[in-house]
Amino acid sequence: xxxxxxxxxxxxxxxxxxxxxxxxxxxxxxxxxxxxxxxxxxxxxxxxxxxxxxxxxxxxxxxxxxxxxxxxxxx
Amino acid sequence: xxxxxxxxxxxxxxxxxxxxxxxxxxxxxxxxxxxxxxxxxxxxxxxxxxxxxxxxxxxxxxxxxxxxxxxxxxxxxxxxxxxxxxxxxxxxxxxxxxxxxxxxxxxxxxxxxxxxxxxxxxxxxxxxxxxxxxxxxxxxxxxxxxxxxxxxxxxxxxxxxxxxxxxxxxxxxxxxxxxxxxxxxx
Lengths: 75, 186
Hints:
The complex is a heterodimer of chains A (75) and B (186). By secondary structure, chain A is mainly α. Chain A is built from three helices and no strands.
């Protein structure tokens, strides 16, 4: 089906751009760890890292809950 | 104080001391002086030895038994100078001072690292820099969280088709960047 190849291409394209964007944003945040320009308490740093970790975990869970086996149906 | 000399047997063989039990009193040290030979005073002899810059007792022994040390310098100073200013081989060779200096330096380093840790743990924040940090975080965190959430939308099977391997790869990428972030902060 032409439709499914379209869907595949779309996924790859969007995944690439979105993941790259997210990684870039994370890099920007890790720039804030530079103690010569910014200052922070360990608690603040832990909060930042925890928030990002939780977000990535929730994304992982989203994908994991929609595995193919649960959606496919064959007669 | 009794002084046990480990080289007694050797010294007896060489004729430096007598075989009879010897009382190690300060007043009888003259007996240990080589028959008829005169030695420099402890301090004078030590000054000459210090010029050799021997760095251990072993190297002193090798040197003393294989070389001529010079007039008036004994190769058995612990015997000759016993009770006449003898301190120890470390003092004789000038090693004790060096060791002490090394210890002092170590102590200084330990103290400094302790102080640094204390500063890290205490709430001595640079408030200006912390304000900058918080301001930028408040701008950047919502953006990144949105960006990550957008990735989650790609899981919709009715709009996209993908394999588990593809998902694994980019989630690994994300986790790797988070690890880097963790390293940078701690």
